[in-house]
Design a protein that fits this description.
Layout lengths: L1 H26 L3 E9 L21 E6 L2 E4 L8 E5 L6 E5 L2 H8 L5 E7 L3 E8 L1
Antiparallel strand pairs: 1-2, 1-7, 2-3, 4-5, 4-6, 6-7
């Protein structure tokens, strides 16, 4: 009888421990966004003439966005400005200097948006559907 009670208690304890972890995992939402990198127009003095010939399309940059933070593969520069544009890229809905303010705004919205990250030399942009 004691063994049955201990087994039942252990089973209940393990379920209680795993339940909050699974609830937290369900709350963690992340989006992977394919982005394109273009030279920043603000740095006109760095603009070089492109040589003639065939060009290979640029390698896409993958960005993972979650409420906890942003991870951009292949980006070695610091992001200066985080922007949210409407779906047609005509209206800038919001612009932020801080990552957490950008994330708070983005995850309080719903729909499709263009997001743009501005660095010293590049503008990195892509589309996200929340």
């Amino acid at each position: 009888m004691k063994r049955l009670f201990c087994s039942a208690f252990l089973l209940i304890l393990l379920n209680c421990i795993q339940f909050p972890v699974s609830v937290l995992a369900a709350d963690s939402v992340s989006y992977t966004v394919t982005m394109q990198k273009e030279p920043n127009n603000q740095t006109g003095h760095n603009k070089q003439e492109e040589p003639e010939g065939r060009r290979i399309p640029p390698k896409p940059i993958y960005c993972t966005i979650s409420p906890e933070g942003i991870s951009v593969t292949g980006l070695s520069e610091d992001i200066i400005t985080y922007e949210v544009w409407n779906e047609t890229s005509e209206i800038c809905l919001a612009s932020f200097n801080e990552e957490q303010e950008f994330l708070n705004f983005l995850f309080s919205q719903s729909g499709e948006f263009q997001i743009t990250f501005v660095t010293e030399n590049y503008c990195i942009s892509g589309y996200i559907s929340i």
